[in-house]
């Protein structure tokens, strides 16, 4: 009888504890940035389940809700972000955004400033740390980065550092085959190339993005024109500009993977598509350098994804949100996300996004990867501007197209 009584007592205690945990369970709603390669090929099911399982194993009192990836959701539309973060019944507590939108979100009064710890900031790449600052305050927690690279299999091409040197190697005249492929048909991409050209044609120690947005320097326009001309083919075709690659975003990577293009400019994550579809020895043959956009030096221009918080959270939800972004920035999780550590079979190629955590490069998933160690690890540079881009990009695109076409 005493044993049975004790067992009943434990059952009752466990029931009360379970009821208490349910009562104190905190719901955290997060909309992650959807521009991520589906390396496993399961529509991100393994990635989402991996994040939820790993996070809730550490924070069992937080119930994490992740919005399914959909690039049509409008992550670059202020109307969508206002609906998700606005005070009139916000749909999400945390939204992962491209930091080019950060200043617009601050000015719209949609997000709250944050207080990252020195320990967190110390492990962040300098471009990531810069990207989340606005009005001398931090308004986000960086998560991942990417940059535009020149992809090549040729040793000589991999040594260039300016746009003119690239022309010397690839040739200045239109050809039957593709000398260079990549998409320029976008009001986001083409102005980004202008900023990159300006940055790489001026003092490498200074962040010149604002001057590129508003200065309209002729020399930078000329650099973009030279880039566009490298895409010219005989018969007047230029698929970089005519929308061909905009309609099929993977087409440049597939052309390069199948050796139908000598070189390619694209974000680092396109390497995932190339290695999936190219020759087996491409892992050892392909070389990447930051795209040589300017006339003086060659530094990458980083795009950064970061988590922003809606305003007026309760203390419990705020603590849960801070726990989540800190968890996602740990070296282990950074390496797992970019290297497809969510694939339980270990057979998928990495996503080849860039971690914001400097320590992530020492994780087992990255330490032996030649691309992360040889081409990504020691990159320095500046981020795209976090204000002014959204409102000027279409005008810049029109002006550039009039100049280069």
Task: Tell me what you see in this structure.
This protein has 405 residues and is an alpha/beta fold. It folds into two domains: 24-145 and 303-378, D-Maltodextrin-Binding Protein, domain 2; 147-301 and 383-404, Periplasmic binding protein-like II (D-Maltodextrin-Binding Protein, domain 2, 3-Layer(aba) Sandwich). The chain contains 19 helices and twelve strands. The chain has helices at 2-23, 45-58, 78-85, 102-107, 118-123, 126-131, 163-170, 189-199, 209-215, 218-229, 244-247, 251-257, 270-277, 282-285, 315-328, 331-338, 364-367, 370-376, 389-404; strands spanning 26-31, 62-66, 94-98, 133-134, 137-138, 141-152, 178-181, 261-267, 287-290, 301-309, 354-355, 382-383. Strand 4 and strand 5 form a beta hairpin. Helix 8 (189-199) packs across helix 9 (209-215), helix 8 packs across helix 10 and helix 12 (251-257) packs across helix 13 (270-277). The longest helix has 22 residues, at 2-23. The chain is globular. The model is unreliable at 1-9 and 15-21 (pLDDT under 50).
Kindly list the characteristics that best describe this protein.
two-stranded antiparallel sheet, D-Maltodextrin-Binding Protein, domain 2, alpha/beta, disordered N terminus, 405 residues, 12 strands, 2 domains, 10-stranded mixed sheet, single chain
Distance between the termini: 91 Å
Low-confidence stretches: 1-9, 15-21
Mean pLDDT: 92
The oligomeric state is single chain
Shape descriptor reads globular
CATH topology name of the largest domain: D-Maltodextrin-Binding Protein, domain 2
Radius of gyration: 23 Å
Task: Count every beta strand, where a strand is a DSSP E run of 2 or more residues.
Answer: 12
The helix/strand class is alpha/beta
Number of helices: 19
User: In CATH, what is the homologous superfamily of the largest domain?
Assistant: Periplasmic binding protein-like II
According to CATH, what is the class of the largest domain?
Alpha Beta
Q: How does the major sheet shape up?
A: 10 strands, mixed
CATH architecture of the largest domain: 3-Layer(aba) Sandwich
């Amino acid at each position: 009888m005493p044993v049975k009584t004790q067992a009943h007592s434990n059952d009752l205690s466990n029931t009360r504890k379970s009821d208490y945990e349910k009562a104190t369970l905190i719901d955290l709603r997060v909309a992650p940035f959807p521009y991520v390669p589906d390396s496993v090929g399961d529509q991100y099911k393994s990635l989402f389940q991996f994040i939820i399982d790993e996070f809730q194993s550490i924070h069992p009192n937080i119930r994490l809700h992740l919005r399914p990836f959909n690039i049509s959701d409008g992550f670059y539309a202020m109307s969508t972000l206002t609906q998700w973060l606005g005070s009139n019944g916000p749909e999400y507590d945390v939204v992962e955004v491209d930091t080019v939108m950060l200043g617009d979100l601050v000015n719209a009064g949609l997000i709250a400033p944050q207080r990252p710890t020195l320990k967190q900031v110390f492990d962040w790449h300098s471009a990531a740390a810069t990207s989340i600052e606005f009005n001398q305050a931090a308004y986000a927690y960086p998560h991942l980065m990417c940059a535009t690279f020149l992809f090549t299999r040729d040793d000589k091409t991999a040594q260039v550092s300016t746009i003119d040197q690239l022309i010397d190697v690839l040739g200045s005249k239109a050809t039957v085959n593709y000398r260079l492929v990549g998409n320029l048909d976008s009001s986001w991409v083409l102005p980004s190339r202008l900023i990159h050209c300006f940055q790489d044609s001026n003092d490498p120690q200074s962040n010149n993005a604002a001057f590129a947005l508003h200065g309209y320097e002729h020399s930078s326009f000329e650099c973009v024109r030279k880039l566009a001309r490298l895409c010219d083919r005989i018969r007047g075709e230029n698929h970089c500009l005519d929308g061909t690659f905009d309609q099929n975003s993977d087409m440049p990577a597939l052309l390069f993977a199948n050796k139908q293009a000598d070189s390619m400019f694209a974000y680092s994550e396109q390497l995932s598509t190339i290695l999936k579809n190219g020759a087996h020895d491409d892992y050892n043959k392909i070389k990447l350098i930051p795209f040589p956009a300017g006339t003086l030096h060659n530094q990458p221009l980083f795009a950064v994804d970061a988590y922003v918080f809606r305003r007026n959270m309760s203390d419990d939800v705020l603590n849960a949100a801070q726990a989540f972004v800190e968890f996602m920035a740990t070296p282990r999780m950074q390496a797992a996300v970019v290297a497809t550590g969510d694939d339980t079979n270990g057979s998928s190629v990495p996503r080849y996004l860039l971690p914001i955590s400097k320590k992530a490069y020492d994780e087992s998933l990255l330490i032996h990867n030649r691309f992360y160690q040889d081409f990504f690890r020691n990159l320095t540079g500046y981020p795209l501007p976090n204000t002014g881009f959204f409102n000027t990009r279409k005008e810049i695109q029109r002006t550039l197209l009039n100049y280069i076409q």
